[in-house]
Amino acid sequence: MATLALAAVGAAAGSALLPAGIGILGTTISGATIGAQLGSLAGSYVDNALFGSSGQSRTVEGPRLSDLQITASTEGTPLPRVYGRARLGGQIIWATDFEEDVTTSAQSSGGGKGGFGGGGSTTTSTEYRYYANFAISLCEGTITRIGRVWADGREIDMSRLVWRLYTGSESQAPDSLIVSREGSGNAPAYRGVAYIVFERLALADFGNRVPQFSFEILRSAETSDGDIRSIVLIPGSGEFVYAPYPVRQTFAEGVSQAANIHTFEAGTDWAAAIDQLQVSLPNAKEISFVVSWFGTDLRAGHCQIKPGIEVTNKMTLPVSWSVSGIARAGG
What we know:
By secondary structure, the protein is of the alpha+beta class. Helices cover 17% and strands 35% of the residues. It has helices at 2-17, 31-51, 176-182, 269-280; strands spanning 22-24, 27-29, 57-61, 84-88, 91-95, 99-109, 121-140, 145-151, 154-155, 162-166, 193-202, 213-219, 230-236, 248-252, 255-258, 286-291, 294-295, 305-306, 315-317, 322-323, 326-327. Strands 3, 5, 6, 7, 10 and 11 form a 6-stranded mixed beta sheet that branches. A 4-stranded antiparallel beta sheet has the order 4-12-8-9. Strand 8 (145-151) and strand 9 form a beta hairpin. It is flat, with a radius of gyration of 34 Å.
């Protein structure tokens, strides 16, 4: 860019300063030509300095942290007790220094145009990525499980993170990560406290800081949950409520939405429900499934019992709805 701009400026300046040109070996060279060549030469050096084609090497470094900022942790904060379901923020009770990963890459470029710029240059880029290890106390134990988790007010997919939940029993052992960092004799087990440990949480999505977490905490108030041996499972009337794999409804090419995924707790609503069931009713070994069929008429003499659908013109992938050989169009 500078080569073209300064060549044009040089041509105009040369034409004004040397309107008659210069005679060399019997040949007259116009002032515009001389000015254009000088401007082009100056512009090539500017371009080489800016865009790295002068044979020189440049080093570019990304932002780097000097300190780790963590979510609030206040000494003497009361430890809540949960019955039923509640959303709580928690407190940082343990953390390590942040971990820094350094990634360096080099990119070479060729020489400049018109013989200027030498044999190219190399630009070296250094990026810094940060990870955090920490534990957050939730409430007084023993809890049943946690549900959804939010970071900075946005629900996150916990299946993409490395984490461990301790429900707060009086016999829970210390976390393996805390033991490895603090030593076997110095790692507390936090017995009686429900807490969660995050291992190598990537901080890039949170502005290189530990985000403000909040957790959906569940604690059963029933003492008879352990006595339940069998249940009746009634999602009932959904088209893909029992599907163990994701099903998407397609509206147009490249436009779709999940038909049986409404939570980040698991891959599908079915998987999330079964996981919750196993935690809440650990001794339930038998399940009676309910599958809903529908009547076509309120008059008993005219009513037919058949499987039903929501709409007839829905397109789903990777499977289409069908029951006993009846396709969607006939449902």
